[in-house]
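Hi P.,

Sorry for the delay on this. The queue was packed all week, but I finally got your sequence through. Input first:
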Amino acid sequence: MTTPRPFHLALPVTDLADTRDFYTATLGCSEGRTADRWVDLNFFGHQVTLHLVDSLESVTTNPVDGDDVPASHFGVILTPADWQALAKRLTDADCQFIIEPHTRFAGKPGEQSTLFLRDPSGNALEFKSFGDDRMIFATD
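Then the structure:
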């Protein structure tokens, strides 16, 4: 397997200014190229582009280990120390979580720290961490 390359993801947003501020000020992402209706961001080494749209469709959820997880979401897997620092940063900023920071699948394959929140345009983000990266794709 080759070394993973950065991914690119384009997200629809209904308020470009507030959403840009969330990603840069709250999450600490740096800004790249911009235009009137879009902005590129360095999202933990990956390229996320925010595209201004007039409306978003509703999002449904799926049950996962006792939580109602937004079916449409994205995020990044951080080191345990970086996940703890981000969870503290978001908590200290009084961010409203969809799913509070906690451990999922405790004592089972795939045990992970996770948290969910929405950006100002309603896009769901998940940040997670594994104590052992071999558990990222573990099945048993």
